[in-house]
Amino acid sequence: MSFFDGLRRGRAAQFDSGSAASNAIELTKRNPSVSLTKQGAATGNLRVNLSWRMRTSDIEGRSRQSGRLFRHPFRLFQPDVVQAHTQGVVNVDLDIGCLYELADGTKGVVQPLGGFFGDLNGPPFVKLSGDDRFGSPSGETIYVNLDHRESIKRLLIFCYIYDQTPAFDRTHAKVTLYPSNGPRIEIELDERAPQARSCAVLTLENVKGELVVRRHVKFVYGFQAELDRLFGWGLQWGRGYKSSVGER
């Protein structure tokens, strides 16, 4: 084994140990699903959190930045705020929502639009904690009461940009599931979709008594009605606002 092979193996070992130490399961295209039941995490309240921060430059832009500094050396001394401003950072208001289908056939949505905040202790056993319009580090959170898992057929967790510039590609967004027991589950919204308005992030399905989380991360250019068609929910949609009753 060469010196460089040993170095690469050493780096891989460090990465693997660091991943285990973080006590998290990351769902990816290659590993898209996990069973909460098999993890012993199918009871109690499941916390589903959407968090994001603004991207100050494109990935490609970062690779070109060093070249620009050679041509414009004084940019090195610009304050960070000025640099961020010149890169055109936009403010994005991401909202989290949930389409639900219960075992008795009841279907609906939990979301800020229209004030459909749900109920944790009664149907649909899904509740939105509130609407964060400022992108705080805590983000937005949906709770699912898994003690009533037998009443839940499937859930679709999605997020969308309500009324601002479509800019999913300018955000570092992540959805994290915190079960009552076991490791958290992380899904990065890391695909480029600059004009998309909505994203179907994951489904939670009751498959013969087993609760399975499956990553989707499918971006669409419309809103909830398009997500509905994509996953066959069959609801009727109309335009809605955060300040009044209605759905979008």
Major pleated sheet: 7 strands, mixed
Mean pLDDT: 76
Encode the helix/strand succession as letters. Answer: HEEEHHEEEEEEEEEEH
Structural class assignment: alpha+beta
Q: Write the CATH fold name of the domain at 32-54 and 91-231.
A: Lipoxygenase-1
Beta-strand portion reads: 25-35%
Shape, per Cα inertia axes: globular
Indicate the multimeric state: single chain
* Tally of contiguous helical segments: 4
User: First CA to last CA: what distance?
Assistant: 60 Å
Percent helix, as a range, is 10-25%
Which residue ranges are poorly predicted, with pLDDT under 50 across at least 5 consecutive positions?
2-21, 58-70, 75-88, 132-137, 242-248
The main sheet orders its strands as: 1-11-10-3-8-7-6
Radius of gyration: 21 Å
CATH class of the domain at 32-54 and 91-231: Mainly Beta
The CATH architecture classification of the domain at 32-54 and 91-231 is: Sandwich
CATH superfamily of the domain at 32-54 and 91-231: sav2460 like domains
Number-wise, the strands total 13
InterPro entries: TerD
Protein name: Tellurium resistance
List the helices and strands and how they pair.
Layout: H1 3-21, E1 24-26, E2 33-35, E3 45-54, H2 59-71, H3 80-86, E4 94-102, E5 107-110, E6 118-119, E7 126-128, E8 140-145, E9 152-161, E10 171-178, E11 184-189, E12 198-207, E13 210-220, H4 224-231
Parallel strand pairs: 1-11
Antiparallel strand pairs: 2-13, 3-8, 3-10, 4-5, 4-9, 6-7, 7-8, 9-12, 10-11, 12-13
